[in-house]
Amino acid sequence: MIKVEWFYWLCGIFFLLIAMQAFNDRTNRKRLGSAAFWGILGLSFCYGTFVVHKQAPSWLLGIAVIGIAVLAGAGFPGRGQERTTTPEQRARFADRFGNKLFLPALVIPVVAAIFGAWLAKVKLGNGKPLLETGSATIIGLGVASILALIVGMILFRPKSPAVPLHEGRRLLEHIGWAAILPQMLATLGLLFTASGVGKAVGRVTDHLIPKGSLIAAVALYCIGMAIFTIIMGNAFAAFPVMTAAVGWPLLVQQFHGTPAVVFAVGMLAGFCGTLCTPMAANFNLVPAALLEMKDQYGPIKAQIPTAIPLLACNIAIMYIFAF
Predict the structure, then answer these.
(1) What's the burial of 26, exposed, middle or buried (CB within 10 Å: 0-12/13-18/19+)?
(2) pTM higher than 0.85 for the full model?
(3) CA–CA separation, 32 and 201 (whole Å)
(4) Taking a C-beta distance cutoff of 8 angstroms, is the pair 77, 22 a contact?
(5) Percent of the chain whose pLDDT exceeds 70
(6) pLDDT tens-digit profile of 260-313?
(7) What H or E segment, with its residue span, contains residue 89?
(8) Residue 280: left (phi > 0), alpha (psi -120 to 50), or beta?
(9) What is the separation of C-alpha 108 from the centre of its chain, rounded to a whole number of angstroms?
(10) Of 157, 105, 128, nearest in space to 290 by CA
(11) CA 299, CA 296: separation in Å to the nearest integer?
């Protein structure tokens, strides 16, 4: 059986190597804090295996998260000297390979889809599944990333096998602490759900929505999804909170809405908030860093004029088609 923890360990080793590079980079004025940031993150990936198997206390991971947050608040990690190709060399690569540059990136969704749709159902001779139950997508993503790396190495033939590691460090340093923001926010969503935030929001909405007003309930659900997504940076984290507060008790149980339509359009309303927030780092800050834009909030400023009318459209679609 292929276990998902193998890929978590691989991620941990990668971050530890980045930490070693940062520590040895004398051009990085924040090298010690940078090494600590990536090192703690890498150790957390490895240590998590022992926590899951009840072989180590979980409170140490809590301290690690606090440590990472403190380092991020103090301005870490920093940037060092780039040891990869220059912009001119990358331009020559683009002219030389053309659309072939996209091959490694296209390998990832194709292989991940194969794992999620097909290999997840494969059984071994002893009746056990080939992939760890419930982790087929993550395992597929891990395998796909490794295959994409191999394809890239064969296609571009870098002078040193360490080039992918240096390039990975360059991208991480451009993105900075925001690289791990989606992971932190997903955890925050779980904490909100477990602590009963959805029920608390539900009690508040009882005083905000006029009795029997369907349009008010629909608007509150959609706008609430967008606002919570802006706060948490993740519509999937906002979904259980607003669904427990408004979506299920009001729109489905009280107004008898079609659950599939209500919840699907509700997620789309949440994605409108994704377009408007720097907390959705993987959608908004990462592209700005990768493209080395002068304005890191440029994508958000360009998306807001689309997000607001799109939210209004989602409210109308839910009101018309879900009831």
Answers:
(1) exposed
(2) no
(3) 42
(4) yes
(5) 95
(6) 999 999 999 999 999 999 887 778 877 777 777 888 888 899 999 999 999 999
(7) helix 87-97
(8) beta
(9) 16
(10) 105
(11) 8
